[in-house]
Design brief:
- The chain contains nine helices and eight strands.
- The chain is of the alpha+beta class.
- The chain has a four-stranded antiparallel beta sheet with strand order 1-8-3-6. A four-stranded antiparallel beta sheet has the order 2-7-4-5.
Length: about 210
């Protein structure tokens, strides 16, 4: 017999506060914020949960949100000539959106898909505008965040154009040691710009090097 567990409103509120504290700590590390300024996060951000394989965003839609990943993993990809191209893989403490669609109000070409059960905090474009009006420090935070996202995109493009596949692989596992336990190998290979077979050869070659 299935056992149903009911959570009290207090329990839910306490858990939500704990989750929000993680976002507040992240923001506070980026720009100095007072306790009252941090409380604005409670006002303007909303939690959202996605099961594995659910989509946060699909191409053709207008992206009207920015999301902070509390826990989980998200794949960024677009489809070209019927083939999926993985542009990035994001994990906890990362921001996800389609900045071009979000900024210009145009249809997006990006898809954002949960690779495991994922919880995010979402702020809509309307709420972000209101947040900026209420506290200018968040405008500074938004600019820094946008710069970090742009830098990330540049680093990925530079790596694909100048690094060898093995170098790209080593950088990836250095930053995400447990990635193979969380992300399917075909997506990792796609992100690295190689086939699954080539990725297997690289992994085996590195393992053999470390044994010798």
């Amino acid at each position: 017999m299935l056992k149903v567990v009911k959570y009290s409103a207090i329990c839910v509120a306490t858990h939500l506060k704990t989750m929000l504290d993680k976002l507040k700590e992240y923001c506070k590390r980026t720009v100095p914020l007072t306790d009252n300024e941090l409380k604005l996060i409670d006002k303007y951000f909303e939690p959202a949960s996605f099961n594995k394989k659910d989509f946060l965003l699909t191409n053709g839609k207008i992206c009207n949100f920015i999301a902070f990943i509390y826990e989980g993993a998200v794949r960024h990809f677009h489809v070209k000539d019927g083939v999926e191209k993985t542009c990035d893989l994001s994990f906890a403490n990362s921001w996800v959106t389609d900045f071009q669609s979000f900024t210009l109000g145009t249809s997006c070409i990006m898809n954002l898909q949960a690779l495991e059960n994922t919880t995010v905090f979402v702020i809509t474009k309307k709420n972000l505008t209101e947040l900026y009006k209420e506290c200018s420090k968040y405008e500074t935070f938004g600019r820094i965040m946008a710069e970090q996202v742009a830098q990330r995109a540049t680093e990925i493009a530079m790596s694909l154009s100048s690094d060898k596949p093995e170098e790209r692989y080593l950088k990836l596992i250095k930053n995400n040691p447990d990635i193979f336990q969380r992300v399917q190998q075909k997506y990792i290979a796609n992100f690295l710009g190689i086939g699954p077979e080539s990725l297997s050869r690289i992994r085996n070659r590195i393992v053999n090097k470390r044994k010798s």
